[in-house]
Amino acid sequence: MRAVLLAGSRNAWLRTRAMRYPFVRRSVSRFMPGETLDAALGAARLLQQRGAGVVLTHLGENISEAAEAEAVTAHYLEVLRRVEADRLDAQISIKPTQLGLDLDLETCFRHLMTLVERASLIGNFVWIDMESTPYVDLTLELFRRARGVSPRVGVCLQAYLRRTAADLESLLPLGPAIRLVKGAYMEPPSLAFPRKTDVDENFFRLASRLLDPDTQRAGAMVAIGTHDPRLVERVRAGLRDRPAPLACEFEMLYGIQPRLQARLLGEREHLRVLISYGEFWFPWYMRRLAERPANVWFVVRGMVGR
Ligand SMILES: Cc1cc2nc3c(=O)[nH]c(=O)nc-3n(C[C@H](O)[C@H](O)[C@H](O)COP(=O)(O)OP(=O)(O)OC[C@H]3O[C@@H](n4cnc5c(N)ncnc54)[C@H](O)[C@@H]3O)c2cc1C
Q1: Residue 266: is its pLDDT beyond 60?
Q2: pLDDT of residue 279
Q3: CA–centroid distance, residue 162 to ligand 1 (Å)
Q4: Residue 233: how many other CB atoms lie within 10 Å
Q5: Closest C-alpha to 27, from 304, 305, 298, 306
Q6: 48 - beta bridge partners?
Q7: Range 238-248 burial, b when 16+ CB lie within 10 A, else e
Q8: Three-state secondary-structure class, residue 261
């Protein structure tokens, strides 16, 4: 089921049709407060009242025209402006292929730096998402270069990749900001652990390395990006045995595990919720379905009107 849904996420024919159906659009609303920036900012305000920070991400990936990358950059500049004006605790998260990485690395880097420099000026922060494996080296290069200019940029690492432990070691001397996640794309077993238990164990090993006192002394900032209650509790138990980390927060996606989110906030953990918005939601939505095939039943129930 996961493989079928992830293959579907890249299918243009399916995308054009699925996006037209009201029952699909209804089921998307579980994970997205709306398609507009205003809807995302409205949700951010409510979350902030409950004690959570947010990360805003405008949906879109693999753009093919230079003008699109310019428009995306201009949009994120506007997001940073609105966040500052509204005094929101809201960072941004971008996908390199949305800033033109498929066109060329330098175009993408230029757009990334426009955002990182603006974020640095106003005390905000830019996260770089990690996409599928052909982009990992380039994404790490973008991060290293941007981190050389400003500390207000972080990168996502995926625990399902066999290479991630080595990537993490190579980044640690930078005192990096790392968001650790399991990984959401279709990858071959030669590159990614096929068994979920191995991914979970690797996640915990990487999280422990990031929260190691030496790593923390080097200035690493850590975002634990998972909705897995077992892993969350294991990380929290590990944290209790260590001196307080400099900067560690939990990050979860809007609409997923809301009870766990509320519990963490109630127990005074730092929580940041990633809010996605925008019209180009199809591939992102299919990845959310693939993470939990039971979600497909919500779509089917919506289709038959129950
Ligand atoms: C803040 C943040 C940023 C992310 N950025 C990236 C990125 O840049 N690159 C990338 O590859 N991936 C990214 N991801 C996605 C990530 O890789 C996983 O696919 C996703 O978080 C699901 O894995 P999990 O750790 O929650 O564990 P899982 O073992 O998949 O899930 C644990 C439990 O969480 C709940 N759950 C998880 N997903 C869903 C869902 N879709 N619907 C309903 N319930 C669900 C279920 O109860 C499940 O049992 C990000 C995730 C987060 C939270």
Answers
A1: yes
A2: 82
A3: 18
A4: 11
A5: 298
A6: none
A7: ebeeeeebbeb
A8: helix
> Nearest to residue 30, comparing CAs of 296, 304, 251?
296
Pair of tokens at residue 94: 């971008």
CA of 67 to the centre of ligand 1 (A): 31
Paired tokens of 26:
């209804």
pLDDT at 183 over 80: yes
Instruction: Tell me if residue 129 is catalytic.
Output: yes
Compute and round to an integer the Cα radius of gyration of the chain.
Answer: 19
d(CA 303, CA 58): 27
What ligand 1 atom has the least distance to the C-alpha of 231?
A: 25
Partners of residue 179 on adjacent β-strands:
156, 223
Count of CA atoms in the C-beta half-sphere (13 A) of 178:
32
Write the CB contacts of 4 (distance below 8 Å, at least 6 apart in sequence): none
For the chain, what's the residue count?
306
Q: Is the model's pTM score more than 0.90?
A: yes
302 Ramachandran zone, left/alpha/beta (phi>0; psi -120 to 50): alpha
Which residue in 129, 167, 200, 228 is the catalytic one?
129
Torsion of CA 40, 43, 49, 55, to 10 degrees: -40
pLDDT digits (tens, 9 = 90+) for 23-79: 667 777 788 898 899 999 999 999 999 999 999 999 987 888 999 999 999 999 999
What does 150-201 look like in DSSP terms, one character per residue?
-SSEEEEEETTBTTHHHHHHHHGGG--EEEEE---S---TTTB--SHHHHHH
Tokens of 38: 């205003």
Cα-to-centroid distance, 87 and ligand 1 (Å): 28
Residues with CB under 6 A from ligand 1: 129-130, 156, 158, 179, 181-185, 225-228, 251-253, 256-257, 274, 288, 291-292, 295
d(CA 14, CA 3) in angstroms, rounded, equals 15
